[in-house]
Amino acid sequence: MIERKCIIIAGEEAGPKSNKMGGIWNVIDAEVNNLAQMLEDGTIEEESTPRIFVVGSYYGHSGSDWNKGLNRITDMSEFEDFVPDEELSTIIDELRVKGIELLAGVIKIKEIEIVYLMFKTNDFCRVVVEYKGEHICLENKIKAEAYDLIGIDSLLYEDMGNRTEYAHYLNLSYAISEFVHTLVSLREETASVYEDKLISEFASSLMPTLYVSLHCHEFGVFYAIARLKKLGVTINTVATYHATIPGRVAGHLSIKKIRDNDGSWGDGVPKNMATLESLSSYADVVTAVGDSTKKEIKLFYGIDSIVVRNGIDLEIEDIDELLDKKSKCRTKIQELTASKLYNAHDSVELLPEKIIPIFSISRIEIENKGYPDLLDSLLLLDRMVRIEVEAGRLDGDYRVVCFIITAHGPKTNLPENFPIMLNEDILIGEELRIQNMIESRGLECSKLPNGDRYVSAVLYPQWLSDHDGGFNMNVDEFMAGCIAGIFPSRYEPFLLTGLEAGKEATPSIVSKVCGFSDALSTAKRLVMGMGGVLVVDNIDLAYLETIADYALTLDYFIDTYTDDKTKYNFLCQEANLLAKDMNWQEPTKQYYEMLTGTKPK
Q1: How far is the C-alpha of 326 from the C-alpha of 67, rounded, in Å?
Q2: Residue 223 and residue 314: Cα distance in Å, rounded?
Q3: Of 45, 124, 353, 530, most Cβ neighbours within 10 A?
């Protein structure tokens, strides 16, 4: 009998990279690429090559995204056209009959084919289907069935502000589960067309026995696992948490909730999303990206999980090549900062080589991401730098610029000299609040040229790209060009950005809260004492001590950069070694074993 494995990796952000910063997309993309590489190089041995699918959302045009602020548009231009075989053609036709439209594309990693299926769900409210003898729209059919199967009462959520997002996740999960269901049942359905039992059995024997595995990243697709379980579809399933919704809402208070064994969700938790998240209980295996997330899953949902940490893939292995990239990108940031400062504020022209760029990048969650802590620490850093200048220990021409890269969504029609020049009319919501926080502390970059400040904060409210209207640099280039990154999160289940900085050989400062800080104890060391990735305790220390430590660690990187370039390069290499050690190979092996039962080499 012919056997074949099918691995389906699902997520709301799965598929081609849209106009959005990182996140779950990076994780899914890394898992897929590493899985294909291991199948190609023999790390994973199978008699027949498993078929790999990536399934997610399709946003075909402006306005089709459920989140109008993000306005994501799916770009499949880099994919090869997908020519489905007879089996997949039948499945796609069946889905379309059921009102489920999808777009397909292919990427080949050497000889391994990755099939991407992007489901178009925004028009489910206009597709008419039959359910229990009545003609209703597909979206209402999905909600009614979810109530019948699992008891999810979507009527309770109709008055909630996030009802559109909830409906999208339910629709997407339904579409994914219907694809899986159709795939699994195809063998029986094909054979059943023959009335003669022997012919039917013979036809069935000619088709491969499929062993299907489904890996769902994040709560937006957990309903797919639950629905398949309730329908009796036999597959292997893994549900991966990158955070928990109650934990996100509690933020830095989640640590206290864990210590107090307080599993209450709290008033600010969106009940509909948390309900979808709790459906991970239907998975065969639940995984968490870090120890704190594992504790939260148990605390809030009573579900046991296994820790599988995230990783990072290095695109440039040669450290000299990386250091050269850093130098070029740093020069570009320095020159643009100097010229934009001069043009925007009609000021004294600063020496580009004396500008010291640092950065912080994350979602726009002000308290959770620790932006108040960062700004307070920059205020302390300014006083420290001033004293060093006045004491003659630092050249008075140096200026430190901390770029805070965070945004509600992509922007167009930006002012000239953006982001040094920010018009309030381009800022919305929390962006405006951060800018006000910068100005209330007197950290505006306009104070740099005449020496009123030696340290400033520059809000960069845009998704970085080579055409973002500001520095026109991709995320990796900006990270490479800065002398350090700082991530002072008060709630951070893992912190991929810390590894992404290390990938570019950029030293960084991370809070103790972040999920990979415990891995630093085993990191390779090239510099005695303080290394290329520094951890600041923001759990047990008093607030003033924490922000003082942020300022002191930043000052350490600045002093090393200005005084001892050789030592600074060693710090860069050390940060890169940490990223290299925390690669995606081991997590991918763990996931594959959980999904298929086959242990890679």
Answers
A1: 35
A2: 34
A3: 124
pLDDT of residue 191: 46
Sequence-ordered list of residues with C-beta below 8 angstroms from that of 178, at least 6 positions apart, any chain? 95, 98, 100
Rounded Cα gap, residues 14 and 28, in angstroms = 6
SS3 state at 401: strand
Compute the residue count for the chain: 601
Give 425's DSSP letter.
G
575, 501 contact by CB (below 8 A): yes
Q: Do 236 and 214 contact (CB within 8 A), yes or no?
A: yes
Residue 122 burial (C-beta neighbours within 10 Å; 0-12, 13-18, 19+): buried
Residue type for 256, please?
K
Spatial CA neighbour of 361 closest among 402, 395, 326: 402
Q: 530: which 2 tokens?
A: 């303080």
Q: Which helix (H) or strand (E) holds 400?
A: strand 399-405
Separation CA 521–CA 498 (nearest Å)? 15
Closest Cα partner for 481 from 397, 384, 561? 561
Who contacts 393 (Cβ-Cβ below 8 Å, separation ≥6)? none
Q: How many whole angstroms separate alpha carbon 240 and alpha carbon 218?
A: 6
| Chain center to CA of 505 | 20
Helix axis angle for 271-278 and 222-231, nearest 10°, is: 50
Q: At residue 299, does pLDDT exceed 70?
A: yes
Q: What is the DSSP string of 278-340?
A: HGGGGSSEEEESSHHHHHHHHHHH----EE-------S---HHHHHHHHHHHHHHHHHHHHHH
Give the CA angle between residues 467, 473, 474 to the nearest 5°: 95
pLDDT tops 70 at residue 236: yes
- Amino acid at site 191: A
Q: What is the pLDDT of residues 77-111, one digit of tens each?
A: 889 988 888 888 999 999 999 999 999 999 998 88
Q: Which of 25-34, 319-328, 438-447 has the lowest mean pLDDT?
A: 25-34
Tokens 């070029």 -> residue:
328
Spatial strand order in the sheet of 101-109? 80-81, 101-109, 112-120, 51-57, 3-11, 209-217, 236-241, 285-288, 306-307
CA 444 to the chain's CA centroid: 30
Instruction: Evaluate whether 264 touches 247 at the Cβ level (below 8 Å).
Output: no
Query: At 170, which helix (H) or strand (E)?
Result: helix 163-192
> Would the pTM of this model clear 0.70, i.e. be above it?
yes
- For residue 415, whether the previous peptide bond is cis, meaning omega lies within 30 degrees of 0, is no
User: Which uninterrupted H or E stretch holds 536?
Assistant: strand 533-536
205 pLDDT higher than 70? no
Give CA 136 to chain center in angstroms. Answer: 36
Q: Which amino acid is at 560?
A: T
Q: How far is CA 550 from CA 332, 421, 498, 579, in A?
A: 26, 27, 15, 22
Spatial contact of 495 and 514, defined as CB atoms under 8 Å apart: yes
